[in-house]
Amino acid sequence: MLKGYKLYLLAGLAVIILTVFWFNVTMEFVNTPESMSLVEPKITEGKKDSKDRTSVKLKITNDLDYILEEDQIDFESLEERLLKLDETNESDELIIALYSENAVPVNKIVQIMDIANRNKFKVILAVNPD
Prior knowledge:
Layout: H1 2-27, E1 53-60, E2 66-68, E3 71-73, H2 78-88, E4 93-100, H3 106-118, E5 122-126
Parallel strand pairs: 1-4, 4-5
Antiparallel strand pairs: 1-2, 2-3
């Protein structure tokens, strides 16, 4: 009786391992358009990047006030203002340094990242040391 129990246990374990393996292999090929790729910063010593970049500071307060550089703006006009900044700068790409206070909902940050993704801007999630 004990030998048969071990046989069922091994067969069940083999099925579980094969299922996990199949799931891992198939998930490698899944690419959803909703996913954003995060680019990790690369540190290169002694090399200068040939790209000309301009960064703008965007701050979101706990009261959901949006401050672009030094001007307070509403969310509806944010994308338009960023596009104007991108047109007027002479650099290759616009980088948004996004400062967020602690109580800002994550979906507000994701909305900004979505605007940046649509317009091919780069976003840096910055923190205040205070």
